[in-house]
Specification:
The chain is mainly α. Helix content is 35%, strand content 5%. It has one domain. The protein has a two-stranded parallel ribbon. 8% of the residues are buried. The protein binds guanosine-5'-diphosphate (GDP) and magnesium ion. Magnesium ion binds next to helix 4. GO terms for molecular function: GTP binding; GTPase activity.
Length: 115
């Protein structure tokens, strides 16, 4: 799934927009191949990849710092002191997009529903 689960059209639509590939449900995955997966994806030009478990908020805390860093290093999207950005979460049904948003709310706003 980490290698085949993306719609190639997303890449076209995203173009050069800074983006992060979130590989959710890491609790259900065989993580022994994690390094190999990262290497393969990096070979495809995907450097910003993160494994998460949105039900247990695992690694979700790293997302906002990664996104902030990405934006800061993208001259086209970087807006000086303005740290307000609109972020889009895209993916096929049931991958955990809503769970991710809820987890981010729990982590950063101290609210948000249970997963
Ligand atoms: N095991 C596991 N299940 C998850 C995780 N994230 C979401 N789910 C479950 O996957 C299902 C679909 O999640 P949902 O957030 O509704 O996906 P969406 O359709 O992309 O918004 C729900 O039953 C979630 O509880 C995760 O990290 N691990
Ligand atoms: Mg949803």
């Amino acid at each position: 799934i980490p290698l085949s689960g993306r719609n190639p059209l997303f890449q076209e639509t995203l173009g050069l927009k800074p983006h992060l590939l979130v590989l959710n449900k890491m609790d259900l995955a065989d993580l022994t191949e994690q390094q190999k997966i990262m290497q393969r994806l990096e070979g495809e030009g995907l450097k910003n990849v993160i494994f998460t478990n949105c039900l247990k908020d695992e690694n979700v805390k790293q997302i906002i710092p990664m996104v902030t860093e990405l934006m800061g290093s993208s001259p086209r999207y970087h807006r000086g002191e303005n740290l307000e950005y609109c972020i889009m979460v895209i993916g096929v049904p049931n991958v955990g997009k809503s769970s991710l948003i809820n987890s981010l709310r729990r982590q950063h706003l101290r609210k948000g529903t249970g997963a």
